[in-house]
Fold this protein.
Amino acid sequence: DLVDQLTALAKKHDFMIFEDRKFADIGNTVKLQYSSGVYKIASWSDITNAHTVPGEGIIQGLREVGLPLNRCLLLLAEMSSAGTLAKGDYTTTTVELARKYKDFVVGFIAMKRYEDKDGDDFIYMTPGVGLDQTTDGLGQQWKHPREVVYERGCDVIIVGRGIYGKGRDPAKEAKRYQEAGWNAYLERIAK
């Protein structure tokens, strides 16, 4: 009943659920993974995300399931890992696909804000945000919340191990990141 508990909390506290699924297969396969399978993600997750490596069909497959349920999608335009292939032409094509499917794609997992075009109003969520470390030795590269929000113009910081990592107090760490992100946002809008 975890999904039932989570969706009840989301409704009670007015928040959206983001399943960081990172779909990465052909349209029909992701359509089935999203709508059915073990997790039935579309039945409870407001937002999910996908790589565009398989092409436009991945968006179409997810859209067929998610749009009627008032769900939305983030596209992985960039990643925070060293040596990522998600850059250059891949990122440019991803942004073009997002613009084509604005009724379903609401933004990006990205390392920076892209140039707006034709009234773009995308959300930019940035992974790899850290206050205390810059790398993990396995390719992860963390950026400070100020760099991500103020300097690069992103809207949401995605923090994992900085909050729940070994020996950390999750409530205390979440507060630290919330304050750092909010202060960077206030600095950005005061420009």
